[in-house]
Amino acid sequence: MAEAVGGIEPLWRVRVGVHVGPVVAGVLGNLQYQYDVCGDSVNIASCMETNDVAGSVTMSPEAWLRVAGLCECESLGHIPVRGKHDIEIFRFTGWKIPPEDIPEAAKDMTGAASVLAA
Questions:
Q1: Comparing 8-22, 80-94, 103-117, which segment has the lowest mean pLDDT?
Q2: Which one of 41, 55, 107, 112 counts the least CB within 10 Å of its CB?
Q3: pTM value surpassing 0.85
């Protein structure tokens, strides 16, 4: 199945923004429930996402430091973040280790497993 999926062109491409930090999470609504997360960390991750192209994973310096042993990134420079100072953003460019070894390698990195699972 993995080989078949690998040959299919995606119908849509996503951008992913990653930041680490505290969030507030909860369920909203009485009739139709909706789960939501909010907070400064979510806003910064959103800024990471909106400042790159489709098909990319962009992360803050804090997120990059957590996964630096696992992957390669390139700096895209600094972006202004409303209410904050300018933040450098990084684009994921590839793995340093084979993807099948990532779960084992992440056990040795503080916080990396939670970043990879997000």
A1: 103-117
A2: 107
A3: no
Strands (E), the chain: 16-18, 24-28, 34-38, 57-59, 71-79, 87-95
**Topology annotation, domain 14-117:** Alpha-Beta Plaits (3.30.70)
Pairing of the two strands 57-59 and 16-18? parallel
Name residue, tokens 């505290």.
22
Contacts of 62 (CB under 8 A, 6+ apart): 19, 20, 21
Distance separating alpha carbons of residues 103 and 117, to the nearest angstrom: 10
Task: Judge whether 43 and 83 are in contact, CB under 8 Å.
Answer: no
